[in-house]
Fold this protein.
Amino acid sequence: MGRQPAEAGEEVRRRKAEAGEQGGRYLSCKQQEAAPTSLRAALKNYQHALSLTLAIHEINKNPKLLPNITLGFDIRDNLFDSIFTYEAILDVLFKQQQTTSQNSLLFVPNYKCGRGNDVISVIGGHTTEYTMQMTIILSLYRIPQLTYNAHEAMFSDKRTFSSSYILAPRETLQHVGIVLLLLHFRWTWIGLVVADDDDGESFLRNLTPLLAQNSICVALLRKIQVQKEIGYVHDSEDIQILQSELLLIKSNVIVVNGNFKSVFSLLYVLDQFEFFLEISIGKVWITTTKWDFTTAVSTGGFCAKMFHGALSFSVHTNVVPGFKEFIQNVNYDEPLMHFLCWFWYFAFNCVPLCLMHVAEPHKQKCTGEEKMESLASSQFEMNMNDESYSIYNAVYAIAHALHSSHLSSERRPVARRHIKHTDIQPWQLNYFLENIRFNNGAGHEVIFANGELQTEYDIINWVTFPNRSFLRVQVGTMSPHQEFTIREDAVVWNSRFKQVPNSTCVESCHLGHSRIIQEGQPVCCYDCRPCSNDMISNQTDAVHCAKCPEDQYPNENQDQCIPKEISFLTYQEPLGILLVSLAISLALMTGLVMQTFLKNWETPIVKANNRNLTCILLTSILLCYFSSLLFIGKPGKVTCLLRQATFGTIFSIAVSCVLAKTILVILAFMATKPGNRMRKWLGQNLASSIVLCCSLIQVSICTAWLSTSPPFPDVDLHSQKGLIILECNEGSATMFYCVLGYMGFLALISFTVAFLARKLPDTFNEAKFITFSMLVFCSVWVSFIPGYLSTKGKNIVVVEVFAILASNTGLLACIFLPKCYIMLLRADLNSGKFLGHNRSNKNIV
């Protein structure tokens, strides 16, 4: 990534020769020109140096930022080697002393000689491994180190790494983003491929718990051995296992963590499938910020087709408007751009002037007319990528920290203002870098908080083309506050998929079903069962069915809650109209009977049936018919209070009248015996006393009921599916059955007495008719109890109203219709001679 000395070129050729002698296999892409050896620095990474250079030029031209100060830079390349990393750092910090007999460099720490400019900060660390190697040395001197690698938990220890600054969001945010991405597309059966190193272990340690918490299962977990020599892979048992696993795995989604070097074996296997065995794996690859697959395409010779439709996370990048113009006008012959010599050499396959002393004689010379925009995007991108943008921001962060340090020194007392700008030590910048906020050269705001860059991750969709070019399409973001967004319609999938890929262990449970975990299987492998009658599931793969709110109920498919209908017996519905019409008709019939009795008020049959009791009984029957109307219509507070108590009291009066008539019949015939003293009990006082006493008992029961636990309007949400039943809650069921029980008690006494007196001789004897009326009454109410208990909703009201009308009609028909028949059709029988031999009885019954 920088200026390469002749020794470095010799090292490249030496390692290439050694690898060839070891029998390694060089990978190539069919139908494409073979890429250069992977030991050459990736061409696309030269953009890092250009972005740094652009930032330096912009800062030096800015009169408001670091006036009268010129920033310089020194670019080093570690050639993917730890030894070169350490040597580069030592060479930057300390003066080279001598060259040993073995032509190796010797460094003396803490010794500087002939160094005009000191290093104030270091930007680098393409991988975690290299970052740590740099940190080991730089942290001793507290020299600010800005790394564009993903955030690692180890760098959070500010005591040890007080001068390390990460130009990326926390890596844990990326883990959460991966999980949210999987959940968004309902991918619960995935594969994991990671490098078998500390970075891979850290990735698994942080991601695996998140996957388990969200019921995402790992169908394949493969740790790949890091290749020592990139580009040369030996077939091994691990490679064979990986090949078979990729063929057999049913998951369509595989998450990959690692850089180009650490997952090179995966590329090798995919290359074998795609281009040698002609087997299309066709997976959705999800990669982290550590690995950009375009490096594999540009450096390893692989085709981009394998990763068409892949999704990756990258640090948020804004467009830098002047970057394209800058790289279009760059000249590799400028001393400042000497590091571009090797780029020109590999990218354009020609020898630039600056490398004439090390190039092969037969190699074609560069013309100087080569243009970077003519290169494929896999070799070089004209737009600044995420790593280059981080480096661009790192330069501005150092410049603004240095600027703030100068301003701070100028505000000090006059006695200390003689300190020169160059006297500022690197460790002094840490105070300003810890929390800094500025706008970079493109006008974008950059914020550091506690040494960490406050930015988001972009979700990139990779679209590849046959000519090894590609297109980055931003389809989503993951904010620092864990706000996940994605434009699903903008995602381009692998050509194997016609729509959004499915990646589950089993077929998803449909709406209206929930999951059942299979014993001994991962949570992602489950069975489906329908929801119970009162529950729904409105999403696929529901963990549990949910109950609807009380005012709603499940639809037929049990995937949606529907508002319940309000139900009560109304006057407008057919059944309500029928009952109202029947009650009014019977009430009119009762009125006709009363009119008939009034017209025949002085006739013997009316006199013989105790006219006062008859009037009270007919009035009670009439009121009972009207009381049934209280049960129809929307239940209210007044109607609920009145309906049972009113009917119970009125009907008790009616039954009391029947009981009084029955007793009087018996007493009347007993009084006809000579010497019997029962005659003195006959008369209106006895009848009134019976009616009054029996009625007062019922009134007392109703009063106690209404005083202690009165009926009230209530809502029944559960009796009938889909209905909210408006009803009257009886308050106290005990008092309700006491009212009914007392009426039944009176009716039973009346029935018993009338049954015993049914054979008493007399033309107008009512005992037989009372017996039939009480039999009808008891039959109706005995049938009412099971009907009342078994019906639900408004049908309960229908049963009650029907019982009232039926029992009331039984009294009216059995007691009064025979008499009306005589009065209206057989007037000849309505005479005194039919009263029997004892005429004295005519007015006492």
About this structure: The longest helix spans residues 637-670. The CA atoms of residues 411 and 806 lie 106 Å apart. The first strand starts at residue 96 and ends at 99. The domain at 46-168+384-453 is CATH 3.40.50.2300 (Rossmann fold).
